[in-house]
Amino acid sequence: MNKRLQILFLFLFCAGTANATKLKGHVYDKQTGEAIVGATVVLENPRRITNTGLDGTFEFKDVKVGAAKISVSYITYKTIEKTLVILKEDNDHLKFYMESDSKSLDDITIKSNVVSSTDQGARRLEKNAPQLMNIVSGRSIEISPDLTVANVMQRISGASIERNSNGDGQYAILRGMDKRYNYTLVNGVKIPSPDNKYRYVPLDLFPSDLLDRLEVYKTLTPNLEGDAIGGVINMVMKNAPGKFQVNANISTGYSQLFFDRKFTSYNASGINYKSPYEVNGKTYNATQSDFTKGTLDYKYKNPAPNLIGSLSLSKRFLDNKLGVVLAGSYQNTYRGSNSTFYNNSVVGVDPYAKITSKSYREYSEQQQRTGLHGKIDYVFNKDHQISLYNVYVNLKNQQVRDAVTTTYNGVYNPTAGNAELVYDTRSRLTEQQIYNSTLHGDHKFFNDKFKVQWSAVYSSAKNDVPDNTSISLNGVQQNFQSKRTSLVNTNPVTRRWERNTDEDLAGYLDLTYHVLAGEHKLDVMAGGLYRDKKRSGFFNNYNLAQGADHANDIYGVNFQNYTDLNLVVSNPTGAVANSLTYDATEQTTSGYGMFKYNSAKLEVIGGLRVEHTNQGYNLLFAAGESFPKGNQIYTDVLPSLTAKYFLTEKAQLHASYYKALNRPGFYEIVPGKVVNEEFQERGNPNLQRALADNFDLRYELFPGASEQLLIGAFYKRIKNPIEYTFQADAVRGQDIYYSPGNFGTANNYGAEVDYIKYFNKIGVKANYTYTHSRINTTKTTRVINSTTGDTEPANVNQERPLYGQSAHIANLSILFKDTKKGWDAQVAGAYTGPRINTVSQFLNNDFWQEGFVQVDASAEKRFKGGISVFVKANNILNTPTKLFIKGTNPANNDIKEDLVKNGKTLIRSDYYGQNYLVGFRYKFN
Question: Alpha-carbon distance 216 to 784, whole Å?
Fold first, then answer.
């Protein structure tokens, strides 16, 4: 009987299987032919639901043979409903083409940012862009581990980042060209930098969740400003779609660093943002009572958890004529680093540095990052519309640096003599902010044959470092085993104010005339720009020291806290008379003419841009400088030509030539000098702009949804590249300054591969860039005079890469996406090869940053009702930043700290710890 039942069950199973099959298909965008990721596919009778994968495919198993109803839906697209007959086989070639459901108003298309912020939209923009471009979509940013724009930059092909003191990205290096060779846009408009010396914008100011997408232009066309030898970074902010939208998130987390040690802080609420000189007048004599004691009152504790949140609201009103978007972001994080620095010097005839002391530093930083974005746009009709953008970002960084420097009888050798100790503590509050307001208009005339675009722009940037306080204690540890140390405040306590502002007024005008239409299209374009920039800098410094009757007071005996010190101001009127107190101006006038030709197989864009620059400075306190005023006036003619040849609908060749420049920074041409914490720095009034010829060739393939294969090569020939080196003063040779200079002609070339591929639920993003550059620098070495037998300096030329350039940069991200179950996850790794960190004046003494791999991860789970839970983890491997010198000095072999290895000497190592974050997200529409 059991055998009969088994046979019956087997027969019924086979009968059911004979009437069941698989149903497979693809969903595409009808207009572009690109696959749509995450579309909902519903099969009726019985009702079953699935979603398209990362390659736009879907699959139903065990489907009954016969007639069935199927529907496909996706946001911003019209729903497809079909009745089909399912066969026993050949059900894997179904294709559905979805049409856009964009809202129309008097023939004006109101495009939803839901599409433009997707990976599909990003690939489409890359394909159609006249420039060679890489884009990170808003959705990719949202689910990535990255919280700031700087950290997003490291995912882009050919880009690496420079870290700040807590390990986060701060500046971008594009194709081996240092951060000075790039400029930054917000919605296509250049923004000023809050930095007191340079033009480049610190990208860690910008929270990543304000962005619709991040664009990086690697080539220029004539309608773009010409000072981008490396490239252009454009932050496109959130837009107003047709539907009411809400996007909110809140999260919290912690840094592993503060599981292992305390966080050092002080009360910054009482800081005076103006120095006594500004408050009381230039003849006022300051006393200790004019300075708050809060910056010397340090607390050691565990920090509160990090708090991060953002909210964006957007909607269209008045029958979709008026669009409004408001977005805000706030991040309060506690970060830091543990750093070991080995000071070194070159002595005698030995070309390699000898370690003279060791400094151990602990950084504790509270960062409060605020971002606000608002946009209003009004559509009058299909030919006329205007918009008003406003962006404000602010970053407050409250930092304490605790350091102890150790020497033994003037050198670093822990086995010899008593330890000579210097304890340095610095409390510093830095506030940086950028504001941009842009009124923009789009107008069409004569049945769309003539187009006018204009922008009126006000921008400002500010950097404020009030009451930067440093204190040091000196002492001697009696022997290596003893922990008893007598600490005396013999060095002055310094109180320092630094502030600079930058204001831009600019106007843009772009005109386009359609000459030909149809199979052969020809547009002629012209336009221009005028920008008036005003910059001011302020610096003041006070030195306070104990009186003669307290000069030998011992910490822990005569005073228990730094706030107990009785100090006398040695320069009571301050030190405002220095070269960092100055005014600068710059007027930029530019015009361009260009054409754009299109046919079925070819697109060509070419033209000329002319830029006139008038850059000047005025030292408010000349302090004996030879050039208290100065300016540079020059005009540059910048041609460019871009061509795209369409091999197929999905493949094309993209070639480009453009000429570009790099202007000196504002303080770089000011001849005054300033004493920094570790070296003296001065400007160079003879510094010239750099000019470069740039060539690019790229094969571009866009095979499917969000997929691409980009293979390219580039070459840059740079005349008068600007680099910083340590240089001897022309008059007083014993004074060494860190100064900018021009260094002949440099060549920079390389190759890039950028690959994105999806396999249903699994995706791979990978890119690799090889860069090679060479520049000659004059270095100092020491030789023995054969006649006298004395050692004397000699200059030699040494070839090296450009500052900041890594030969090898790579990224690899593994993605997982299950739309049906609401999962998104990724593991992202970024590799940056060795690069020069500091250029020395001595032969073979440049500081190199060791190559490193950083691994981050993130995951998100979506639930019904628009609720999501996400986690992010950064720097999972706790990858340090390490600096080394290529070469060894035998005198360093006695230091038993593993400093000398494989022909290299370790100079510095910074550890930042891992960072963890968990949060909730809510989306409506």
Answer: 52
CA distance 84 to 25: 13
How is residue 274 annotated by DSSP? S
Please tell me whether residue 256 adopts helix, strand or coil conformation: coil
Give the closest residue to 222 by CA, choosing from 660, 609, 654. 609
In total, the chain counts a number of residues equal to 925
The answer to whether residues 159 and 177 touch, using CB atoms and an 8 Å cutoff, is no
Residue 213, SS3 per DSSP? strand
d(CA 547, CA 836): 45
Q: What distance, in Å, lies between the first and last C-alpha atoms of the chain?
A: 60
423 closest CA partner among 562, 303, 542 = 562
Evaluate whether 331 touches 366 at the Cβ level (below 8 Å): no
d(CA 562, CA 281) in angstroms, rounded, equals 28
pLDDT digits (tens, 9 = 90+) for 750-802: 999 999 998 888 999 999 999 999 988 888 777 777 777 777 777 888 889 99
Burial class from Cβ neighbours inside 10 Å (0-12, 13-18, 19+) for residue 553 reads middle
Percent above pLDDT 70 for the chain: 91
Q: Which helix (H) or strand (E) holds 277?
A: helix 276-280
One-letter amino acid of 25: G
Instruction: Give the span between the Cα atoms of 497 and 437, in whole angstroms.
Output: 29
What one-letter code names the amino acid at 82?
K
Q: Which two tokens stand for residue 596?
A: 């754009």
What does DSSP assign to residue 238?
A: P
pTM exceeds 0.90, yes or no:
no
pLDDT 10s digits, 90-105: 666 788 998 876 544 3
890: helix, strand or coil: helix
At 580 the pLDDT is 78
CA distance 737 to 724: 10
CB 738 within 8 A of CB 725: yes
Q: Is the peptide bond before 46 cis (omega within 30 degrees of 0)?
A: yes
Distances (CA, A) of 886 to 354, 839, 849, 883: 13, 12, 11, 10
Please answer whether residues 43 and 8 qualify as being in contact, where contact means their C-beta atoms are separated by less than 8 angstroms: no
Contact indicator for 174, 114 with CB cutoff of 8 Å = no
Neighbouring-strand partners of residue 557:
none
Distances from the Cα of 185 to the Cαs of 158, 188, 206, 506, in angstroms? 19, 5, 12, 13
Query: Given the structure tokens 């108003």, which residue do they identify?
Result: 105
| Residues ≥6 apart with Cβ < 8 Å to 74 | 27, 36, 38, 39, 40, 98
The angle at the Cα of 428, spanning 540 to 147, to the nearest 5 degrees, equals: 130
